[in-house]
Amino acid sequence: MTEATTQSAGTGSGDVEGRTAALRLTGLHKQFGSKTAVEHVDLVVPQGSFFGLVGPNGAGKTTLLSMAVGLLRPDAGDSQVFGAGVWTDPAEAKALTGVLPDGLSMPERLTGRELLTFIGELRGINPGVLAGRVQELLDVMELGSAERTLVVDYSTGMRKKIGLATALLHGPRLLVLDEPFEAVDPVSAAALKAILNGFVAGGGSVVLSSHVMPLVEQLCDTVAIMARGQVVAAGPLGQVRGDATLEQTFVRLVGGDEHARKGLSWLAS
Ligand SMILES: Nc1ncnc2c1ncn2[C@@H]1O[C@H](COP(=O)(O)OP(=O)(O)OP(=O)(O)O)[C@@H](O)[C@H]1O
Known about the structure:
Blueprint: E1 15-16, E2 19-32, E3 35-46, E4 50-54, H1 61-69, E5 76-81, E6 84-85, H2 90-95, E7 97-100, H3 112-122, H4 127-140, H5 156-168, E8 174-178, H6 186-201, E9 205-209, H7 213-219, E10 222-227, E11 230-236, H8 237-241, H9 246-254, H10 258-262
Parallel strand pairs: 4-9, 4-10, 7-8, 8-9
Antiparallel strand pairs: 1-2, 2-3, 2-5, 5-6, 10-11
Helix pairs in contact: 3-4
Adenosine-5'-triphosphate binds next to strand 3 and helix 1.
InterPro entries: AAA+_ATPase (IPR003593), ABC_transporter-like_ATP-bd (IPR003439), ABC_Transporter_VariousFunc (IPR051782), P-loop_NTPase (IPR027417)
Pfam family, one: ABC_tran
Keywords: ATP-binding, Nucleotide-binding, Transport
C-alpha cells in the first residue's frame, strides 16, 4: 500500500501540480523467471525536482531506473521523458536524459579526456564546444590531475565521477543517477552535490537512488521508497517522512529483518 502515492503528485495529464513531468513511469513491470523485480510501478518525477529513490538491497531500484531510461526493456508499462516515449521516441527521450547506470561499462583503455571526447563526438557535439565542456568537466570532477591515467586504472570513485561527466556532457534536462555517491570521497561528494544542486537550480531535474538516508534528506525535495518491487511511499520529502526521519520512516515501511536484529549469538561474548 502506498502511503503518499504518486497520484498526489498527479498522473494522467502532462502536468504535475502545474509542472510538466520530467519523468513519468506508467505500470512498469519486470519479471526475471519467477522473481518479480518490479511490479506495475507508477511514478511521476515533477520537472525541477530533486528526486530520491530509496529501498533495501534487491528492492528493484536498479531494475526500475534501467527500464525508465531505456536500458532494460520492460515486460509491461511505459516511460516518458518530458512526454517523449523512451521506447517510442528514443532519440528525443535520450537527448533529454543523462544517465549514470549501475555497473557502468565504458571504453576503458582511454584517458578521461579521450573518453569524454569520444562520447561527445558520438553525441554530435560541435568540436569547439566539446573541447571546452570536456575541460570544464575534468576540472570540476577533479580528474585533471589523472590526465595520463586510463579509465581502466581509475578507482571506483573516479569511475563514478567520469560516469557522471559523460551523463552531463550533452546538457540533458533530466539526470537519472544510480548510486552516484557510492565510493566517492567526501571532498568529491561535496563537489558533486554542488553540481547537482546547481543543475536543479538551473531548471534541471534529478532522479538518484541511494542507500544513504541523510544524503537523500539533505539533497532531495521529493522521495520514493521501494520495497519488494513496489513503491510503498512517494511524494514531497516532508509528507513522506512526517515527524520522523527518513530512515525511521524507511525502517517502519520496509520492515527490518528479525534475524538481522537478533545478531549473531556466538559473537556476543
Ligand atoms: N538480470 C537479472 N536476472 C535475474 N534477477 C535479477 C536480475 N536483475 C535483478 N534481478 C533481481 O531483481 C531484484 C531487484 O534487483 P535490483 O538490482 O533492481 O535491486 P536494487 O534495489 O537496485 O538493489 P541494490 O540496492 O542491492 O542495488 C533482485 O531480487 C535481483 O536479484
